[in-house]
From TrEMBL:
Cited Gene3D superfamilies: Citrate Synthase, domain 1, Cytochrome P450-Terp, domain 2
Keywords from the named record: Transferase
GO biological process, one term: carbohydrate metabolic process
InterPro entries recorded: Citrate_synth-like_lrg_a-sub (IPR016142), Citrate_synth-like_sm_a-sub (IPR016143), Citrate_synthase (IPR002020), Citrate_synthase_bac-typ (IPR024176), Citrate_synthase_sf (IPR036969)
Reactions the enzyme catalyzes: oxaloacetate + acetyl-CoA + H2O = citrate + CoA + H(+)
The family this protein is said to belong to: Belongs to the citrate synthase family.
An example Gene Ontology molecular-function term: citrate synthase activity
E.C. code: 2.3.3.16
Protein name: Citrate synthase
Domain of life: Archaea
Pfam families recorded: Citrate_synt
Active site as annotated: H270, D325
Keyword Transferase in record: yes
Length: 336
């Protein structure tokens, strides 16, 4: 009847939260984002201090086990990561038969999905799931680097002796031992990207896991979410943007043209950071500058700084500030 339908409509309208804005779906002890003070904490530790004083392996351990590892725990954890770097043979084969023009993130998604094949998934204890998480994390550098080498006409490489996750990835990509500063830069990037509360990909993973599907399925779905240009795909678009602009002098005309066409500027805007830039930028800007000095090439960092200045001047009144992906693109360009 009319009046009940009307009340239902009102209730539905009152309960509609576009984009889940303001909806709390879960409590977590893993990450705290303090918007008021522009700070991020992993398990109570200030992210900027972790980025300065710790390694990716220590941070991964902290996020998974709730405490920083003591010496022997860290060594054991690193040894386990090293043990699982090379994924099972059929995953290697899946990467080898991928068309060379595939997107690397699509190959990664397919490979992580393939990791479930043939594994006995019946043990669903937290310990067994942690081992699966460890296997996925450990294998990702090999998968991405192998595909990149194959598409460039060379063979996959497994530099097993590389000490850290970051060193392993750069070495497996390039085929030669990377410099210490480059390894540290990638290590910091891995720390910075390790956790960010209930973002789209984490939400997707939790949604899949909540049906008691499996770890590989949840992470495959999370990678699918991450790929989107409004989320993790933005750092690819930001890198393309830097190349397209090519020179800090062209920033203004390029941005004006994009905005006049109603397009978004990659590496800007964030669901949470509407009153100022992403707090992680304090680390990333410095890292980008340090790498530029190391390489003696300031082109990309100056371009990003000019973009930050110009876009912020034009769009901050709408709550648009730079996000991590702008400077991540700069750092990844310097890392080749
Ligand atoms: N460039 C220009 N305008 C923008 C941008 C941008 N990058 N981002 C948002 N806007 C504008 C929108 O067009 C909209 O304008 P309008 O009110 O005139 O229509 C307004 O700002 C609000 O936009 P929403 O989409 O409602 O903002 P929301 O907070 O939901 O979106 C998002 C956040 C998706 C990140 C968005 O800012 C965006 O698309 N950014 C570009 C892609 C990007 O860098 N993504 C990475 C995010 S960080 C991460 O996921 C790792």
């Amino acid at each position: 009847p009319g009046p009940i339908k009307y009340i239902n409509c009102l209730l539905t309208a009152a309960m509609y939260f576009p984009g889940l804005e303001g909806v709390v779906v879960k409590e977590t002890k893993i990450c705290h984002i303090d918007l008021e003070n522009s700070k991020i904490y992993y398990r109570g530790y200030d992210l900027e201090e972790l980025a300065q004083y710790s390694t990716f392996e220590e941070v991964a351990y902290l996020l998974w086990f709730g405490k920083l590892p003591a010496g022997a725990e860290l060594e054991r954890f690193k040894a386990e990561l090293m043990m699982y770097r090379k994924p099972p043979e059929h995953v290697d084969e899946a990467v080898k038969i991928a068309p060379k023009n595939a997107e690397p993130i699509d190959v990664l998604r397919t490979a992580v999905s393939a990791m479930a094949l043939g594994e006995d998934l019946s043990d669903r204890s937290p310990e067994a799931e942690l081992v699966r998480g460890l296997k996925i994390t450990a294998a990702m550098p090999y998968i991405v680097a192998s595909f990149d080498r194959l598409r460039r006409g060379s063979q996959p490489l497994h530099p097993g002796e590389a000490k850290s996750h970051a060193e392993y990835f750069l070495w497996a990509l390039r085929g030669e031992r990377p410099g210490e500063r480059e390894v540290r830069a990638l290590d910091v990037m891995l720390i910075i990207y390790a956790e960010h509360s209930m973002n789209n990909s984490a939400f997707t993973a939790v949604t899949v896991a909540s049906t008691l599907s499996d770890m590989y399925a949840a992470i495959t779905a999370a990678i699918a979410s991450l790929k989107g240009p409004l989320h993790g795909g933005a750092n690819v678009d930001a890198a393309k943007m830097l190349e397209e602009i090519g020179d800090a002098k062209r920033v203004e005309s390029w941005v004006d043209q994009q905005l006049s066409r109603g397009r978004r500027i990659p590496g800007f805007g964030h669901r949470l950071y509407k009153k100022g830039p992403d707090p992680r930028l304090r680390v990333l800007r410095k890292l980008a500058r340090d790498l530029a000095s190391e390489k003696g090439d300031f082109k990309w960092v100056e371009l990003a700084e000019r973009l930050e200045e110009y876009v912020t001047a034009h769009l901050s009144q709408k709550g648009i500030y730079p996000n991590t992906d702008l400077y991540a693109a700069v750092i990844f360009k310097y890392l080749g």
